[in-house]
Amino acid sequence: MTDVRLGGWIDQAAVAVLYRQGSAGCEIFFIQRAKKPGDPWSGDIAFPGGRKQVEDASLKDTAIRETWEETGLDLFHHGAFKRKLSHQLTRSHRHNAPMIVTPFLFHWQGDDEVNLNHECDDALWIPLDFFNDRLMRSSLTWKQGHFSLQMPCYHYAEKTVWGLTLRMLDQIRQRRELFV
Q1: Would 148 be classed as within a structural domain?
Q2: Secondary structure, 3-state, the chain
Q3: Do the domain assignments include residue 58?
Q4: How confident is the model over 98-131, as pLDDT tens digits?
Q5: Structural domain tally of the chain?
């Protein structure tokens, strides 16, 4: 598996999409980002992950490291790597430049103990079937200055899944063959 080579002019990040077989069937793991002034993703529901660092040998290593740092979940020992998913183009809030985020799918085979660091306020497992129920899909109004836009989302237990996280989730949510 090779990473995209971008010559350092564009940020790269990776996230881990974890699933497990729980009491409600297949469940997907999410974190809630900590609320911080000036952070455009403050409080958002997301997959654990972050920017690639120089010491990361690959983007998959970035996803594994960031998941460990943010949640204490050890994908190296308890996550069966399944596949790399499609790269997602977004923007870096640091320099308002393009950023590529690469999601990696892992089957979680460890226990439920989560140890959140300062970057996260919460973590939860949501049944995959919830996202496959058309009636659960909703919308929210996203505002940026004087501009507003209706965006698709899901509301679950007072949390909202939308944006880039929803875009990644939409790629996989109806593909049951990925979750075996």
Answers
A1: no
A2: CCCCCCCCCCEEEEEEEEEEEECCEEEEEEEEECCCCCCCCCCCEECCEEECCCCCCCHHHHHHHHHHHHHCCCHHHHEEEEEECCCEEEEECCCCEEEEEEEEEEEECCCCCCCCCCCEEEEEEEEHHHHCCHHHEEEEEEEECCEEEEEEEEEECCEEEEHHHHHHHHHHCCCHHHHC
A3: yes
A4: 889 999 999 999 998 999 999 999 999 999 999 9
A5: 1
Contacts of 84 (CB under 8 A, 6+ apart): 1, 59, 60, 102, 103, 104, 105
Q: Which two tokens stand for residue 15?
A: 């996230």
Residue 140 lies in a domain: no
Provide the whole-model pTM. 0.91
Query: Which tokens in the block code for residue 71?
Result: 């949640």
DSSP bridge partners of 33:
120
Question: Kind of pairing, strands 147-156 and 137-144?
Answer: antiparallel
Query: What pLDDT, in 10s, does the model give residues 61-85?
Result: 999 999 999 999 999 999 999 999 9
Expressed as residue numbers, the domain containing 52 is 11-128
In a domain, 78, yes or no: yes
Q: Please check whether residue 85 is in contact with residue 100, taking contact to mean a CB–CB distance below 8 angstroms.
A: no
Polymer length in residues for the chain? 180
The CATH number given to whatever domain includes residue 119 is: 3.90.79.10
